[in-house]
């Protein structure tokens, strides 16, 4: 899948119990997906298997919101790569700022998880982003370069094409977030692309999608998606209702 594809994804975060998730997945299964758009949905673990099975033959990828790097063991409360794979998931979200801020996720644990995901044939969706403080001190580019380099440390040349990245400024996420300016986003994505070129070479780096996330909504989604170095959007609140997700997909397709 090349960079001409527009990725549109949503994580339901800690929303929708098993019954509600099944209803939403059935509605997603009815959507007609425009060409060149690759939607994905990331439900909570409690409905991962059901959502995967409802969307199995549809052009909507399903992912987990996190996982451990070990394949089994005494890790109470954790879920392993083979467990995620067995549920039918195609991708796994790693390093979201809420995991980093509240659950001790670090660049190093993200790296372990990225390597484990690739080993088990899961596409890692790696979330990176600057905090408000880093943004204010104008070190965003350095932070993103560090996060990308550590997350991808040890990734083999042929594995880079399975990587998906999302730039999500921490200050842009959630109810208190403010959407980033389009010029700023384009600049950050250019810098991320440069880091990817350093790591994987120009040809491969061109094929790694880099999405934008953080207060994306129906109004701003097509503007972000149209930026030259942005390959789609990763949406929270605005895409939790299936109608909102559908509208954003359509806004990007047109
Ligand atoms: O956290 C994300 C964005 O959330 P918003 O509610 O859109 O600010 C991103 O990772 C998608 O879940």
UniProtKB/TrEMBL annotation:
- Give its E.C. classification number: 5.3.1.1
EC category: isomerase
Q: Looking at the keywords, is Chaperone present?
A: no
Q: Which reaction does it catalyse?
A: D-glyceraldehyde 3-phosphate = dihydroxyacetone phosphate; L-erythrulose 1-phosphate = D-erythrulose 4-phosphate
Report if keyword Transmembrane is assigned. no
The UniProt entry, under InterPro entries, shows: Aldolase_TIM, TIM_sf, TrioseP_Isoase_bac/euk, Triosephosphate_isomerase, Triosephosphate_isomerase_AS
Pathway the protein takes part in: Carbohydrate metabolism; erythritol degradation; Carbohydrate degradation; glycolysis; D-glyceraldehyde 3-phosphate from glycerone phosphate: step 1/1; Carbohydrate biosynthesis; gluconeogenesis
Q: Which PANTHER family match?
A: TRIOSEPHOSPHATE ISOMERASE (PTHR21139)
UniProt-listed NCBIfam families: PRK00042.2-1, tim
The name on file for this protein is Triosephosphate isomerase
State the encoding gene: tpiA
């Amino acid at each position: 899948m090349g960079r001409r594809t527009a990725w549109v994804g949503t994580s339901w975060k800690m929303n929708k119990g098993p019954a509600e998730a099944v209803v939403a997945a059935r509605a997603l299964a009815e959507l007609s997906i425009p060409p060149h758009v690759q939607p994905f949905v990331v439900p909570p673990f409690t409905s991962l298997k059901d959502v995967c099975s409802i969307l199995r033959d549809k052009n909507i990828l399903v992912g987990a919101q996190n996982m451990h790097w070990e394949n089994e063991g005494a890790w109470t409360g954790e879920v392993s790569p083979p467990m995620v794979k067995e549920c039918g998931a195609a991708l796994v979200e790693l390093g979201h700022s809420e995991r980093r801020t509240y659950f001790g996720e670090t660049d190093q644990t993200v790296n372990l998880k990225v390597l484990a995901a690739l080993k088990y044939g899961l596409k890692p969706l790696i979330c990176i982003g600057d905090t408000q403080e880093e943004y204010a001190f104008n070190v965003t580019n350095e932070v993103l370069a560090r996060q990308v380099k550590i997350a991808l440390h040890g990734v083999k040349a042929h594995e880079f094409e399975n990587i998906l990245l999302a730039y999500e400024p921490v200050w842009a996420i959630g109810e208190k977030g403010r959407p980033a300016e389009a010029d700023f986003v384009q600049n950050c994505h250019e810098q991320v692309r440069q880091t990817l070129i350093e790591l994987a070479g120009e040809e491969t780096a061109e094929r790694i999608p880099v999405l934008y996330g953080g207060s994306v909504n129906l109004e701003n989604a097509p503007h972000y998606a149209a930026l030259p170095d942005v390959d789609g959007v990763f949406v929270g609140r605005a895409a939790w209702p299936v109608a909102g997700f559908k509208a954003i997909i359509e806004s990007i397709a047109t």
